[in-house]
UniProtKB/TrEMBL annotation:
<dbReference type="GO" id="GO:0071949">
    <property type="term" value="F:FAD binding"/>
</dbReference>
<keyword id="KW-0560">Oxidoreductase</keyword>
<dbReference type="GO" id="GO:0016491">
    <property type="term" value="F:oxidoreductase activity"/>
</dbReference>
<dbReference type="InterPro" id="IPR036318">
    <property type="entry name" value="FAD-bd_PCMH-like_sf"/>
</dbReference>
<protein>
    <submittedName>
        <fullName>Xanthine dehydrogenase FAD-binding subunit XdhB</fullName>
    </submittedName>
</protein>
<dbReference type="Pfam" id="PF03450">
    <property type="entry name" value="CO_deh_flav_C"/>
</dbReference>
<dbReference type="InterPro" id="IPR002346">
    <property type="entry name" value="Mopterin_DH_FAD-bd"/>
</dbReference>
<dbReference type="InterPro" id="IPR016167">
    <property type="entry name" value="FAD-bd_PCMH_sub1"/>
</dbReference>
<dbReference type="InterPro" id="IPR016169">
    <property type="entry name" value="FAD-bd_PCMH_sub2"/>
</dbReference>
<feature type="domain" description="FAD-binding PCMH-type">
    <location>
        <begin position="1"/>
        <end position="172"/>
    </location>
</feature>
<dbReference type="Pfam" id="PF00941">
    <property type="entry name" value="FAD_binding_5"/>
</dbReference>
<dbReference type="InterPro" id="IPR016166">
    <property type="entry name" value="FAD-bd_PCMH"/>
</dbReference>
<keyword id="KW-0285">Flavoprotein</keyword>
<dbReference type="InterPro" id="IPR036683">
    <property type="entry name" value="CO_DH_flav_C_dom_sf"/>
</dbReference>
<dbReference type="InterPro" id="IPR005107">
    <property type="entry name" value="CO_DH_flav_C"/>
</dbReference>
<dbReference type="InterPro" id="IPR051312">
    <property type="entry name" value="Diverse_Substr_Oxidored"/>
</dbReference>
Amino acid sequence: MVGGYLPKDFDEALKILNEKDVTIYAGGTDLMVRNKNAASLLPKFNNDLLYIGNLKELKGIKESDDSLEIGTACTLSSLLREKGIPEVLKESIRQIASPAIRNMGTIGGNICNASPAGDTLPILYALGAKLKLVSENSSREVHIEDFILGPRKIILERTEILKSIIIPKAEFNKVYYEKVGARKASAISKLSFIGLAEVKSGKVKDIRIAIGSVAPKVVRVRAAEDFIKEKNLEDIKSEMEKIRNIYFKEIVPIDDQRSTAVYRKTVALRLIQYFLNTRI
Ligand SMILES: Cc1cc2nc3c(=O)[nH]c(=O)nc-3n(C[C@H](O)[C@H](O)[C@H](O)COP(=O)(O)OP(=O)(O)OC[C@H]3O[C@@H](n4cnc5c(N)ncnc54)[C@H](O)[C@@H]3O)c2cc1C
């Protein structure tokens, strides 16, 4: 039978993590599925669980002039009720699973699970999110792109907790999000696409494109973004083949139960073109 720890605060959670061999448990919506057992038996765990889902230090959001800090134990549902959360992040959350899962699942769990199909990830990549990792003796900030190494692979040390997500504020007057799934609700992505741009007087001042489920990690290609930046819209259209070729090399999907590599690559490249041709 698995045991559990219910720390009274964040410091106690870090202490337990430092001293015991435990698995962090927030909403459990990934963890329980990953450790599922035969029908009607409890999930199987090799070590005790450390419940962090109710720690107040990991809840709520803080806004400053230049950034937004989100506690990682915020449930997906609770973020939909927060005024300061970017609308595009809310849009991606509304399309995750069902209300019951969103009421339990946390944004920190979505990140730490590091699934290529994690729906908040492309948005956080595009927004340039940084993550605050804290242990009993240290604290560091890393870019989300450096935090995730591949499917289920993250750089979190055994003694660290992902405490918060920091999103720098930025202006975008063009926003396009698309989750491609087998149905409108309660579907894991075949792929997902986010395009953000700031366009002024017909010129692209900032552009971010991130695509999920088309490679082991979310695809965000700085070389392509740099190529597009400062160009006017007509020039982007005439350079579309060059832009497509940059992305073509980076989009390396797989076949799985949800889709095929060919479908994913075709749709991802078309969404990039659609965004650049008609949505900016
Ligand atoms: C039916 C169903 C449908 C789903 N549909 C979708 C979907 O459409 N889109 C989608 O993106 N996801 C989906 N999910 C996956 C899941 O609900 C989300 O990834 C959710 O955000 C996970 O959060 P959690 O708090 O439940 O994570 P948990 O299961 O508690 O934890 C996940 C992992 O992260 C670690 N962890 C959690 N929090 C922290 C922290 N703060 N610091 C360090 N480590 C931490 C845990 O140790 C574990 O390894 C679905 C799940 C189910 C069961």
